[in-house]
Amino acid sequence: MTETHGLGAGTGPDGLDARLVVDRGTFHLDVALTVAPGEVVALLGPNGAGKTTALRALAGLTPLTGGHLRLDGATLERTPPESRPVGVVFQDYLLFPHLTALDNVAFGPRCQGASKTEARAQAAQWLDRLGLADHTGAKPRRLSGGQAQRVALARALATRPRLLLLDEPLAALDARTRLEVRTQLRRHLAEFEAVAVLVTHDPLDAMVLADRLVVVEHGEVVQEGSPSDIARHPRTDYIAQLVGLNLHRGHADGHTVRLETGPAITTAEVLSGPVFVAFPPSAITLHRGRPTGSSARNVWRCEVAGLETHGDQIRAALTGDLPLAADLTTVAAAELDLHPGAEVWATVKATQTHAYPV
Amino acid sequence: MTSTAKPDAATGTLRGGPRRRRVRAGGGRGAPLPLLVPALIGLAFLVVPLVALLVRAPWRSMPEQLTSAEVWQALRLSLICATAATAVSLVIGVPLAWLLARVEFRGRGLVRALVTLPLVLPPVVGGVALLTSLGRNGIVGKWLDSWFGVTLPFTTAGVVVAEAFVAMPFLVISVEGTLRAADPRYEEAATTLGASRFTAFRRVTLPLIAPGIAAGAVLAWARALGEFGATITFAGNFPGRTQTMPLAVYLALQSDPEAAIALSLVLLAVSIAVLAGLRDRWMTAG
Question: Is residue B108 a part of any domain in this protein?
Fold first, then answer.
């Protein structure tokens, strides 16, 4: 096998430099990932996008069919999982049910050659650091979801990994615990000095926990950047939906963006060439008849495709001139007599749109 | 063995309702005769022979029957050989079950079929097969004899071999089923913590499947204890050396039927004990 030199040569030997290629019949994964020590990267994407496969490839549980994997300068793609300096927090934690919390955490140090006493002493320290000193003797089934999550984190950290992988770390928790654990996890990840990669389909988890997001769809990276950049400038429908924006792609000429499907959007920005236009569902005003006195520059005729409650608002899915999501109050929805199939007119002020080059 | 209150309560409530309804249906409209008659014949067919054993048991001479040296010798040999055969089955059967459950290889279906063959093979055929393989002139036994001076046929070790051959498939099938039901990702979690595949098996998988192994071992032990055909074919019938309880029963039947019944009762008692031991696992299942 020939050594391939990654494009991320500028990051130096430390940290993670990987191109993960996994071919499995109809599914093809090709994800490049460069992460500096101390950085937390979230792989964000819909179910079936290949995030977990990427994570398993990093851990060595799924073999690579191509690409490369270097961690702190060492080539790892042929190293078996037990010899990789990698720690994994699994989605449902996979704490060994027959071992106490202490012995779960001591398992890694024991495998690395520590004596039983030594391993247990180290494990006790980790559990103490994660605020679990009172639960060392508990079997996993006696732990709450949040506690189990922290034991799993302690177990992964106890092997002193250079790469920490977290698979949907908060997915197994109920909403209330989730909030608390997310905050704690953020603190622990901030303290972690090596590379951390987490996989999630929840944009909030990704944005709170990670310094950088890598969005994966259909086995490839579609966008990466800081959470705020991605939230403001989504580049795919999936991301736009995640961050709650209407997203359209078209060709700009001054204040006008002509969409590939025909209609035009008037924007505040002056641009030329291919652009994205994004605006929040709350920027849309709906009317039952063609609006006459409106100052809004964008007026489209639409049909209501569906309605659902969204917090204390109603979200209307619209089809017609262009697909839209519009938010309105329950009162407004009642006054407009909205129902699936109803014809409506949607208006958006140019100042509430945001256009940016592709 | 302690059974938790929960499953008992569950089966209790499940049974309570339908049973009352069934009784009413039986008393009111009557169960259809084409089903009821064969069902009762089937029940009698299974129960009457056992009752007959108890009825014809020589209760008065029982104490002296069961304390005779021959009986103790046969019982002791049976227990030792069945336990040794179970131990052999555990040592080589559990890894075989792991291989079948966890490693994908070509011809796995064929291997599984070969493993289960002794389950359906007439035990006498098993004994003949063992003679042709491990006998003094067998294809393997020949070398065992000339290289190591080991001969298996007509020895106590031969009894263990014959019993293990017949009983091990029960263990393998049981353990493989448990392994398939166990989550293989625990092994993956162990390897990410630095455990080799063997360490992961020893420290994680083995404790997780222990109940399945125990059940398989009990099954194998019970099968080994009752083994007759393969044993008499491969190991012969020498009192004190290869004469186990079933062989003793058969022999006694020809000279002293009362002794045969007494010995049978001992084996029946052991069977009931095994069933009681497995009760929590089987009776409450489903």
Answer: yes
CB < 8 Å & 24+ apart, contacts of B263-270: B263/B65, B263/B71, B263/B74, B264/B53, B265/B53, B265/B54, B265/B57, B266/B66, B266/B71, B266/B75, B267/B225, B267/B226, B268/B50, B268/B53, B270/B222, B270/B225
Cα dihedral across residues B210, B216, B220, B223: positive or negative:
positive
Mean pLDDT of B255-273: 86
B27, pLDDT greater than 60: no
Task: Classify residue B128: in a domain, yes or no.
Answer: yes
Closest CA to A70 of A121, A126, A9, A130: A9
Contact A304, A339 (CB under 8 A): yes
**So what's the ipTM on this one?**
0.78
Q: Residues B218, B104, A55, CA angle at the centre, nearest 5°?
A: 110
In a domain, B64, yes or no: no
A87 has a chain B CB within 8 A of its CB:
yes
Structure tokens at B208: 């997780």
Structural domains for chain A: 16-239 (3.40.50.300), 248-357 (2.40.50.100)
Do B193 and A155 count as a contact with CB atoms less than 8 A apart?
A: yes
Its domain, for residue B215, covers: 83-242
User: How many structural domains comprise chain B?
Assistant: 1
- Please tell me the distance in Å from B2's CA to the nearest CA on chain A: 18
Q: Is residue B263 part of a domain?
A: no
DSSP B252-267: HHHH-HHHHHHHHHHH
Locus of tokens 């006498």: B124
CATH number, domain with residue B224: 1.10.3720.10
- Min CA distance, A52 vs chain B (Å)? 14
Give me the phi and psi of A199, to 5 degrees please: -115, 130
Q: Which residues of A264-289 are buried (b: 16+ CB within 10 A; e: fewer)?
A: bbbbebebeeebbbbbbbebbbbeee
DSSP B204: I
User: A348 near A278, Cβ under 8 Å?
Assistant: no
pLDDT band at B175 (very low <50, low <70, confident <90, very high): very high
